[in-house]
């Protein structure tokens, strides 16, 4: 093998073609609603971590479990990157009619790109939170919330933080 690029070889690099069974694919016996996605701070220095919170409500008639997934998308990068990158997930049990507020931490290392070394780059990013991948078409209603944040400062190697 001489071509080591991942384009067209893994679902993260398929372009517009959706995978048949994406990560998190499955059905539930209840329904969930996401709301109040908060990113803090919305503008952060190049080496800082991002705090994320989201509220998950079980709107169905049965108790259920949901796998809450967080994906990161680089809006501009100096090197090829995936359409989105899974940065966190958590299985949560929620009683029927109840809600829970979840908190996550997205560390600076998760924003790093490979350019002969792991580098952090400034720019705009989009974070997605939901029970599936962004843009995934399913037969059951599911939503994915999104919010943008900005990273400021000069690009640097990950070791420089």
TrEMBL record:
Keyword Hydrolase: yes
Matching InterPro entries: Cellulose_deg_GH3 (IPR050288), Fn3-like (IPR026891), Glyco_hydro_3_C_sf (IPR036881), Ig-like_fold (IPR013783)
One example of a Gene Ontology biological process annotation: carbohydrate metabolic process
Reactions catalysed according to its record: Hydrolysis of terminal, non-reducing beta-D-glucosyl residues with release of beta-D-glucose
Domain of life: Eukaryota
MF terms (GO), sorted A to Z: beta-glucosidase activity
The protein's Enzyme Commission number: 3.2.1.21
Enzyme class: hydrolase
Pfam families, alphabetized: Fn3-like (PF14310)
Record domain Fibronectin type III-like: where: 66-133
Keywords: Hydrolase
PANTHER family: BETA-GLUCOSIDASE
Record-stated family: Belongs to the glycosyl hydrolase 3 family.
Protein name: beta-glucosidase
């Amino acid at each position: 093998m001489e071509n080591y690029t991942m384009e067209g070889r893994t679902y993260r690099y398929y372009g517009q073609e959706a995978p048949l069974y994406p990560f998190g694919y499955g059905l539930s016996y209840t329904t969930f609603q996401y709301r109040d996605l908060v990113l803090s701070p919305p503008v952060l220095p190049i080496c800082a971590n991002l705090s994320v919170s989201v509220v998950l409500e079980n709107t169905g008639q049965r108790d259920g479990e949901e796998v809450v997934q967080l994906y990161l998308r680089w809006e501009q990068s100096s090197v090829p990157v995936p359409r989105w990158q899974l940065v966190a997930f958590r299985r949560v049990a929620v009683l029927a009619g109840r809600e829970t507020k979840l908190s996550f931490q997205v560390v600076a290392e998760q924003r790093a790109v490979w350019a002969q070394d792991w580098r952090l780059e400034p720019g705009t990013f989009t974070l997605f939170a939901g029970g599936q991948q962004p843009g995934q078409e399913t037969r059951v209603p599911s939503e994915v919330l999104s919010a943008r944040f900005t990273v400021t400062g000069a690009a640097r190697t990950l070791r420089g933080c």
